[in-house]
Structure formats: structure tokens, C-alpha cells
Give the backbone structure.
Amino acid sequence: MATPSIAFLGTGSYTPTRILSNQEISQLVETSDEWILTRTGIRERRIAAGTETTADMAAAAGKAALESAGLSPGDIDLVILATLTPDLPMPATACLVQQRLGIPSRAACFDVNAACTGFLYALDTAWGMLSSGRYRHALVIGAEKLSTVLDWKDRTTCVLFGDAAGAAVLGPARRESSGLIGTRLGSLPLPADLLWVPGGGSSPANLDDPRVIRMKGKEVFKVAVRAMEDVARDILEQHHVSADQIACVVPHQANLRIIEAIAHYLKLPMDRFYVNVDRYGNTSAASVPLALHEAQQAGRIRPGDLVLLVAFGAGLTYGGALVRW
Ligand code: ACO
């Protein structure tokens, strides 16, 4: 195992105050608490206020992560923000967060879009840039206002998603042998319409299509389980770690049944997985950092623990990261 030197120094999250229950959604579309709960494990999700933006949520999560790292905005020289719901096509939402937090002008700031795998893509990019020695402290954020890209008349998608932000500060490890051990990213070249927002982009073929999430849920479900299982196995094998050495798996929170299937295939008990999909639904790029922050707050991750992050998303992208906490 290579000696890691870039570590998580702090984590933070932000969730809007407005809770939308399954019961309330069943007044908008023909569904029920029972259907949503048994098929997805979701009980409720958070919905951002009308004026609240992805950048606002990202900045709040970033501020909390800085505080938990014991650093100030002036210490940050890299901001990478993962989102599929940026405030604007340009500038990058990372630049808006920089301004809100007072991060200095020498910081590089940009967004990445790998849908629900976005945080892992951002994390891997930050790790590479920090390991080069040319940057010292990175603020890595996943933030989404998915409520703006939902068709609230489509019961097959609107029940699944929510708004949130999660963040982490990365930098030189403060404890011996803590830090990132390995990452693995990939993308399965499957038809885009498995999971996409057809409208709102520059493609002339899709000019009249709506800017809302459309998904072939059943097909995505199968690919998701396989992709997350495969990436978990790859990473563990590559670093000669067995699944039972992992203290906590922090998976993308799309559906409880997907997480249960991965646990089954990896032969790990569910109590090794951190699950909060019941309270937030699928928050895409925010999902993994939000769950990671909560897992740590809840004492599910302790110094010295091996932690595995896994995700998949539209693309279909997938990714994993192995960390010694
Ligand atoms: N309420 C009630 N009935 C519903 C609802 C609903 N909200 N949604 C669908 N149904 C109906 C369907 O119309 C269907 O009815 P039919 O049999 O009469 O045709 C029936 O329920 C079964 O539908 P399925 O799609 O087969 O249900 P399934 O068990 O596959 O669950 C779900 C659907 C929850 C979407 C599941 O397939 C899933 O979780 N897929 C993966 C989703 C996912 O992980 N997405 C990743 C997004 S990541 C990113 O990058 C944004």
C-alpha cells in the first residue's frame, strides 16, 4: 500500500430546511408513501427555497468544511465543485462560491459534471492537483438544486430526488498513514437517454426537449448495481484490501435496494454502509459528501478506519475511492 499524503482535513454539509414528505408528493402525482418507501427506501427529501441557489448551498457546506478543518478561506488555493445544476451556464458555480466565501484570487476554481459520480471525479482531480505539490488545500464540493430539473408531473422521477450540498477540505495529511489510498473512475458508453436531461443544452436536435430528468429506471438500476460492485472490487483488489477490512462504505444514495444489492454481492452486512437516502433521496453530486459528513459526525468513521466511497451516475459514469481516515 502506497503511503498516502493527501487527506480529508474536514467535512461539511448543508440541507435546505423545507422537508417534502412522500405523503405530500402523493398529492402532486399518483403515488403513495408505501410505493416510494418499499421501492426506494426514501421517506422524505429537502427542497431548496425559491431564492436559494446551488452556489448558496455549496458555500454553506464549504464554510462548514473549512471550520471543521480549522482553516480559513485564505488557506484554499483550489475549489472544485461537482454539479449538474449550476447556477448559470457560466461562470462556473465554483467561482460564485469563491466570492461568497472570500477565497483569494490565486485559487483555481472550476466545476465538473459527472452527474451523481461528480464528487468522486472532483475528489480524484483534487488529489492529483494537490499531489503535484502545486496546490496546498482544496475545497471539494458536491451541490445540487435538482428540484429545478424535475418534472413534477412524472411520478417515475420526481419522487426520487432532492436538494443538498456536501463538502470536504483536502490537504497534506496531519496524521501518519491517513489519507487517500486509491481512486478509480470510469464511464460506460451506454445510450445517453438511459438517464439524461434532454433539453437546455446546445444540441440543435434537442432544442425543444424539456430541461428535466428522464430515466429508464429499471435499466439504470441493474447497471448501477454492477458498476458500483465492480468499482468496489477493483479498488479493493488493487490495494490488497479485503471487503471486511472496510469500516464504512459510503455509497451514492439513489435507492436503498441498490445499496442492499451491493452489500449482498460484496458479502458485507448493511451496518457497514452509511445510509441516509431515507431522509434526502438522491441528491446526485451532493449525495456522497453529505453522507460522508454525516457518517463522520455520527461516529461511524473514526481515525485510522478504512473508508470506501462508491458512486455511479448519468453517463453512465462510475467511481470509487479508498481512504484511510
Ligand atoms: N408511484 C407509484 N407507481 C409508480 C411510481 C411511483 N412513484 N413510479 C413508477 N410506478 C409504477 C410504474 O408505472 C410501473 O407500473 P406498471 O407495472 O403498471 O407499468 C410500476 O410502478 C413498476 O415500475 P418500475 O419502474 O418497474 O419500478 P422499479 O421497481 O424498477 O422501481 C425505480 C423504479 C425506483 C426508479 C428503480 O428502477 C430505480 O431506483 N432505478 C434506479 C434509479 C437510479 O439509481 N437512478 C440514478 C440516478 S443518478 C444520476 O446521475 C442523476
In short: Residues 11 and 297 are 9 Å apart (CA to CA). The chain has two domains: 6-172, 179-324. The longest helix spans residues 217-238.
